[in-house]
Design brief:
734 residues, alpha/beta, 7-stranded mixed beta sheet, 9 strands, elongated
Length: 734
Amino acid sequence: MKSDLIALAGNPNAGKTSLFNAITGARQHVANYPGVTVERKEGYYSQDGHDYHIVDLPGTYSLTAYSPEELVAREVLTEERPQVVINIVDASNLDRNLYLTLQLFELGIPMVIALNMMDVARARGLEIDVVQLSQKLNVPVIATVARSGVGKEALLEAASRVIEEGAGPGGPPQIPYGPDIDPVLQEMEAKISSAGLLSDLYPARWTALKYLESDEEIVGKGREAAPELSAELEKMTARVSEHLKKTLDTYPEGIIADYRYGFISALLKSGVLKQKHEADRLYLSDRIDRVVTHRVAGPAIMCLILYILYYFAFSFSDTPVKWLQGGFAALGGLIETHLSPGLLRSLLVRGIIGGVGGILGFVPIIVFIFLGIAFLEDSGYLARAAFMLDRVFRTFGLHGSSFMAYIVGGGIAGGCGVPGVMATRTLRSSNERLATMLTVGFMNCGAKLPVYALLIGAFFAGHKARMMMILTLISWSMAFLVAKFLRTTILRGPNTPFLLELPPYRLPTLRGLVIHTWERAWLYVRKAGTVLLAVSILFWALMNFPRLPASKKALFDARKLAFAARISAPEEKTVAQRSGSPAGAAALETIEAAENRAALRYSFAGRMGLALEHITRFCGFDWRTNVALVGGVAGKEIVVSVLSTAYSMGRTGSEKTEPLGAVLAADPAWNPLVAFTLILFTMLYVPCVVSVVCLAKEAGSWRWAMFSVVFNTSVAFVVAVLVYQGGRLLGIGI
């Protein structure tokens, strides 16, 4: 049965996402709008035997297509034609939020208003007459507190009623636009209606308004559909514009905006909005901001918050990580016990369980970090951090909005480079946007976390939170320095001003935190079970083929036979107690381990790693690390997967149950300096393939994507060589 479509529309920070989560719960999924890299969230709910399909539109302040979010919101409303729009309005900021409401009215789509955050409005001394507001706008208005679910049922009932019964007689009020606009608007509306111009998508009055506002997309569609009529409408707009410029020194879009705000002001003064008591102008959020955005105290508080987040993540995840790693080791041992030696057992134990299991073993750390990030996002703190760091960003040639791109990309460890690159779409300056895109890859995305967790746990176990804090500071410092270099060389240009709305602080709900954490964690697990599984199998094959030549294998077989013959001699029985004794078994396994290592070096992967060793030896990396780094181009988690597979192929029986971290710590080729150098190289070198493709699409050229590949890897190599060679000279970490 086809479900009715309901769209959620509203300003950013109006509580739209909280309402969406409250309605849909777990019955939701996230994708991108077709052809546009803007997030599309969809979900479902059922009521009284009816199924409803919910689409959460991107947060937007208007329906004039100045940004991808506004364009997407408008296209969904006009092309998918939802049966009803639930317009989420921030009750504590009615004058600003109702501006979008008026534009939704003009589109002619049935509407229900969710008057959200009523608790915040009451705390600010505001009293809203919901019944009177509903009567004056002639649409259902429901008071809600989305974060706690208050009013949700009444809102859904109102939406269902509108779908079944229609919008009601009369419809919403029609806004007058004054003596200069109204006559022309009515004439244009009549012409558009008579010709049926774009009538399958938009009401005639709305189309006329878009012509008067010089909306490029609508005018372009009009030119294609009816060139002559469009030219006439454009001439009428030009005449009005010229008249307004001469008489009022403004343009039609300015007059239209003024009359909309005037309508809202008159509406609120008519008794809809009252000041119940004289509220303190310095609200709680403002009081907190005086401390957390302070020029000196603010950055210190931010660093402390990040340190607490990392301490919380590593401390609480330690036991679950051990459980998972032990579980995967036990599963591998079970398969080895019941499956005879051969390629199939090697694939299952070393390729799949050793590779993917090595990555999934660190899921608890990632989940706890995601939980902390969700708390900071939902509380409103991250917007303060962006405001506070704007001065720093401008110093390095970036824009304050670059902060959110960095955060999404892993500025607080655990993001993803792909949405980080897409988040740069809010930047208006092409040079600032490119500089941000090219440096987002330095952030500590979630894919890098398994590498960090592995090496920090093996070599810096007593300082886990401190090390993550240091790595966060290094990633930001490198991004700033490289951005400054780019902005003073190939991406020169002035900085653009930064304006940001600071939402009020809110206490996140448990439901919201769980949903946000689950969404991010599930994407990570799904990636491990699909893309990373395929890459792990590929690298297992590269490490197993070609097989050792018969001549070389014969040498190892001869050594095994010679050993077996020697321990079978009577004089050797007291020493080794035949090959079944512990000493004999260990000696035989040593020969087998040597054979495995020789086979690994002879494989495609081994040859590739050995060839790169001529260069990477300056960084302290051996051929197995080189193979892992090549795999990391597909996704940084693969570094752990490939290392796990590579080292498992050379272990003896007693070592097979040991975690990879313990194996690396015991290997003479590894030490804290090598581990730290590898962490830095992983942090800085080529972004993953998906990020590179996304960068090419967003930048509009593969030239910049290839520049990122070469430039980032060059930076990583130079930094790794300096750190490793400098550390050796100083005797640090060896």
